[in-house]
Amino acid sequence: MFVIATGFLSGCDNYDERKSAYFAKGKQLFEVGDDARAQLELKNTLQIDGKHAESWYLLGRIEERASEYRKAFGNYSRALELDPSLIDARVRRAQLLVAGNQLDEAGKEIATVLGQQPENTSALVARAALLRRQGDAVGARNDAASVLADDPGNAGAAALMASLLTEDDKLDDARQVLERAIAADPDGEVLWL
User: Fold this and answer.
1) Under DSSP, is residue 60 helix (H, G, I), strand (E, B) or coil?
2) What does the alpha-carbon distance between residue 18 and residue 153 come to, in Å, rounded to a whole number?
3) Of the residues 76, 80, 137, 158, which has the fewest C-beta atoms closer than 10 A?
4) How far are the Cα atoms of 23, 27, 35, 90, 166 from residue 85, in angstroms, in the given order?
């Protein structure tokens, strides 16, 4: 009986070690942009533990980078079902909801994040985008300005602020916002598009 229990427990350790190794490798590959191999490692993680929320989140990020927004949304939703405390998954899902014009749902997600982390810059940028979609340019500008005050290289806030300034025919101000963002984060891909 002891031998069976010991074998079972060591098997559990082996599963946990394999799961951790697959996830660590998948995360590392994701961070360097090797999405195909990262996806494989993350799916291996999920073969061992289908309830590994962080793997679902990273799969969502991979799908989002591939412009597979429905799949990304589904993966973020699955991650949040398994672990509602995954703030990054909630923010990403909110951003997709704003883009999909699901403004009420997006507002709830953003409010949840900001209720827990009032200074979360990604959530503030998402709220700025939401407010803009709702026709509140002043609120959108305030949120974007708040983010840019702390993080002048924030591409999302800079792009949104520049767009708002352009709508007001303040082209020089818009250019300055973008130039400051590029100077603060020269590798910021979004601003170079």
Assistant:
1) helix
2) 38
3) 137
4) 19, 19, 25, 8, 37
Phi-psi region of 67 (alpha: psi -120 to 50; beta: other; left: phi over 0): left
How many whole angstroms separate alpha carbon 127 and alpha carbon 23? 31
**Which residue in 123, 164, 121 sits closest to 146, CA to CA?**
121
**Minimal CA–CA distance to 157: which of 169, 168, 141, 173?**
141
DSSP string, 8-59: HHHHHHHHHHHHHHHHHHHHHHHHTT-HHHHHHHHHHHHHH-TT-HHHHHHH
**61 vs 29: CA distance, rounded Å:** 12
Which single residue is written with the structure tokens 């999920």?
A: 46
Predicted TM-score (pTM) of the model is: 0.85
- To which residue do tokens 């507002």 refer? 107
3-state secondary structure of 49: coil
Residue with tokens 């005050």: 149
pLDDT tens, position by position, 147-168: 999 999 999 999 999 999 999 9
Domain ranges within the chain, ordered by starting residue: 1-67
